[in-house]
Amino acid sequence: MERAIGVIDSGVGGLTVVHELMRQLPKEKLIYLGDTARCPYGPRTEEEVKLFTWEMVHFLLEKDIKMLIIACNTATAFTLKELQNSLDIPVIGVIQPGARAAIKFTKNNHVGVIGTEGTIRSNAYTEALQTIKADIHVNALACPLFVPMVEKGILTGPVATSVVEESILPMKQKNHMDTLILGCTHYPLIKDTIQEVIGEHVTIISSSEETARETSTILEVHSLLSREENVPVHQFYATGELEIFIEIAKTIFQESNFNMLKIKKACLGTNQEV
Ligand code: DGL
Fold it and tell me: How does residue 252 score in pLDDT terms, banded at 50, 70 and 90?
């Protein structure tokens, strides 16, 4: 039987990466785990994020995954190197792919990054961008209200607009950026609102597409691409209540794709499915 790709996130945000993986790699079976019970990770300490991420990784290793995607910027910032050094399967995060995409798009060399407090504090995006292009100008801003709002299912409407407006205002006022990285996998779910507030002249980058492209290359290099002829049935796990998780999954995946998903509750620590 073909082994699956494991995808982890603190909540529903990583589903935006899954959506792109399903589009670019339709033969690959995916097992997703969102730690919705302990979301958000953004305001947590590095130690906590590491501990929780390792618990998610153990849950997926039990399922014999062939590759791991950390579809969470906060977890990528704090655990990518450690996981790459410790696991004997390929591991990728979402920060480097996003940084690469932004460098491709910017014309004036001014890039903005918005993300959780943890991601912005880690400086991971600025380092990733400046490693590729030393003279790039980076303006980074934490938007701590976005993730709790998205996890509640508020994606559009007047509340979403005013939260985005107030959060992004400092960046809008003093910045010449022509490219903005959504440095959190939850943010593509409110991309339209962010675009409206920031203006059409700014190109918005979400790292999902690049991450899926990189996954495909890595699977090919390691001869791990699936040869499965049948349409895969994906497994989705969340540690918290499933109601909103299912609702958000429905808005991301079209009806036909949504029916290809099996959604269950997971208990980390005991590695049990409920
Ligand atoms: N979706 C996550 C990220 O990309 C984390 C959001 C959170 O848990 O704070 O950073």
Answer: confident
CA 223 to centroid of ligand 1, rounded, Å: 31
User: Does the C-beta of 59 come closer than 6 Å to ligand 1?
Assistant: no
Strands 67-70 and 5-9: parallel
- Rounded distance, CA 211 to CA 219, Å? 12
Tell me, yes or no, if 143 is annotated catalytic: no
Any ligand 1 atom below 6 A from CB of 261: no
Q: How far is the CA of 146 from the centre of ligand 1 (A)?
A: 10
Q: Kindly state the tokens that stand for 3.
A: 């082994």
Asked whether 40 lines ligand 1 (CB < 6 A), one says yes
CB neighbourhood size of 94 (10 A): 32
All residues at 6 or more sequence positions from 54 whose CB lies less than 8 Å from its CB, including other chains: 79
All structural domains of the chain = 5-93+209-273 (3.40.50.1860), 95-207 (3.40.50.1860)
> What is the tens place of the pLDDT at every residue in 50-80?
999 999 999 999 999 999 999 999 999 999 9
3-state helix/strand/coil string of 27-84: CCCEEEEECHHHCCCCCCCHHHHHHHHHHHHHHHHCCCCCEEEECCHHHHHHHHHHHH
For 262-273, how does the pLDDT look when each residue is reduced to its tens digit (9 = 90+)? 888 888 866 666
Residue among 8, 184, 189, 206 to mutate when testing ligand 1 (max atoms within 8 A of CB): 184
